[in-house]
Write a structure and sequence with these properties.
The protein has about 300 residues and is α/β, with parallel strands linked by helices. The chain is about 40% helix and about 20% strand. Belongs to the LysR transcriptional regulatory family.
Length: about 300
């Protein structure tokens, strides 16, 4: 079997991440039919089906999903190697990156030393915005924003889709006598992030009819939501990035298998009217590579 083309592998990775041909095409700056052709050529090279019909569109086969996951990791490793060996120690300067509070605290702060090891000459300043989708701030070179990707005056690149699920402390779970059915979460205090409505979305998807989610505690900052959850003050809705370390260390548990794909996602956003900054480009490449290697939260 010959080695698949890089273009075809990039088309597969983009389609797997976005779930639609037109979004993959937009990211790769090619036509929708070109993406489709690349995927068909890849199927011929591999000797197995990657795509299957889904209504009026197409979706990945189970084998296609597994292969796409491996391809995404492989492409990230290639990009990471280019960053690591291509300009290690050569970049100089200072950059300011704005990140959503929860992502900054529970993901970026955990991994940021790795970027510093790769680029010791770059001084990285991290700030947090007043709103999750805020991409307007003086003196900021790039934004890690959580939203729908609609920032027409900026260059926008998808970092990762987001899955969310209930999380709570093991102490609280024991006090509640366990959570056997999704409706059981209503026996506890619900911890909300202001303006998102994730509890209603999750409970509805779990089959709870007419759930009352207008009780509990509402916070303006994801850091406060997770701090309350870690303290056993209630059950929160967290995502697979901000909750990952707390779940891995046992400080939080995921009581149900059901995860929901969020309507919003994490994006890397830069002002379109500014010249390219090599340090920002290196940070973006490192960030995308590291996010790919971050495994999703599974049930505890």
């Amino acid at each position: 079997m010959r080695l698949p083309s890089t273009q075809a592998l990039r088309a597969l990775e983009a389609f797997a991440r976005h779930g639609t041909l037109w979004q993959a095409a937009a990211e790769l700056n090619i036509t929708r039919s070109a993406v489709s052709h690349q995927l068909r050529f890849l199927e011929q090279d591999l000797g197995f089906d990657l795509l299957q019909r889904a209504g009026k569109g197409v979706m990945l086969t189970p084998q296609g999903k597994r292969y796409a996951a491996d391809v995404r990791i492989a492409l990230a490793l290639i990009a990471d190697a280019a960053v690591h060996y291509g300009d290690r120690g050569l970049l100089q300067g200072a950059i300011t990156v704005s990140s959503t509070p929860g992502f900054a605290t529970f993901w970026l702060c955990v991994h940021v030393a790795e970027f510093r090891q790769l680029h010791p000459g770059v001084t990285l300043r991290i700030v947090t915005p007043p709103r999750l989708e805020d991409v307007e701030a003086p003196g900021v070179d790039a934004f890690i924003a959580y939203g729908d990707g609609d920032w027409p005056r900026h260059s926008v690149e998808l970092l990762s889709v987001v899955d969310f699920m209930p999380v709570c402390s093991p102490v609280l779970l024991n006090q509640l006598g366990g959570l056997n059915e999704p409706v059981d979460v209503l026996r506890s205090v619900l911890l909300h992030l202001d303006g998102l409505g994730d509890w209603l979305t999750w409970l509805t998807a779990a089959g709870v009819v007419g759930p009352r989610t207008d009780h509990g505690v509402i916070f303006s900052d994801m850091n406060l939501v997770l701090a309350a959850a870690l303290a056993g003050q209630g059950i929160a809705i967290g995502d697979n990035f901000v909750c990952r370390q707390a779940v891995e260390t046992g400080r939080l548990v995921v009581p149900f298998d059901l995860t929901i794909r969020a309507a919003r996602a994490y994006y890397f956003v830069t002002p379109r009217d500014r010249p390219g900054n090599p340090a920002i480009q290196a940070f973006a490449a490192w960030l995308k590579s590291r996010l790919v290697q971050t495994a999703p939260v599974m049930r505890s």
